[in-house]
Amino acid sequence: MSGYTFRRAVREKVPLIIGLSGGTGSGKTYSAMRMAKGMAREKPFCVIDTENGRASHYADQFQFDVLDLRAPFSPDAYAKAIAAADKAGYPVIVVDSMSHVWAGDGGVLDWQEEELDRMAKDDYQRREACKMAAWIKPKMAHKHMMQTLLQVKAHLILCFRAEEKIEMVKVGGKLEVRKKESLIGKDGWVPICEKNVPFEATCSFLLLASNPGIPHPIKLQEQHKPFFSPTDCIDEFSGEQLAKWAAGGTEKAAKDGAGQGLEAPAIPQQASDAPLPQPDIFVQSSAMADHELMIDESENLSKAQSAWQDVTADTRLTSQQKAELYQRYQRKCKTLSGKK
Fold it and tell me: C-alpha 306: how far from its chain's center?
């Protein structure tokens, strides 16, 4: 016996963190509301509003409760507000906006400046020497806030303000001005936040004022690609499908005998190195046609959702095929719902 006990991995009740970044007029708040509605379904969701009551502009369109968070926008204030919303049992928590905890009145940047003033006052040389030390308290508070976010049971939708940035790059001995490249941004747009925050997101998107609500992926894993269209706005269907994915497949795991606390068996080296069987193209095409027919012939939303569940469970399909079928399913659902 090794002394270590393993269990079958099961995706169930996974709390999601979704990041939406964009400038003014990019549709962050409305997109977050639509996604939250799809995730929460018939239940009300919660909005933590730092934008002077802007979330309440949508009170006639969505069923949600709101908390107006005022300055100072300290990490502790955010952590307590999010923890309180989670304790209250909201299935989805929208934070609009997360940028204030970094660059807002009383946020981390202000706190670091206050620490620097306390340590060095107007002594320039001492200020230079104390810059790093002045970050200790605000960064520790921000880290504690992030730990709180990662422990909540609710789904989180975090809205970030973004700003367009440029950089000077030497190319062939000449300096060129171009859009800033960033791992946490896209096309020169960078979210206003601590640099590590976007990496905690399950998926994140940039929204642009030139085409409000259309998602430009910053981080999007293969299993989530079918839930978002590059040409359609983020909507309730995106949120609903994400929530279903996060709920996982507990029933299937139970049928497989998972969770019995068995010690993991040794994996033969020969078996682990064996090539995986290649998919049969004819079988894939036939399966694709069958699912297209099932979606098209769905008479109501319940049957359409059942048809989509069959798609997600079909291991014969490629990720690209599932993405195409999701777009077909989405159009069918909108037609059945009477949407244009």
Answer: 25
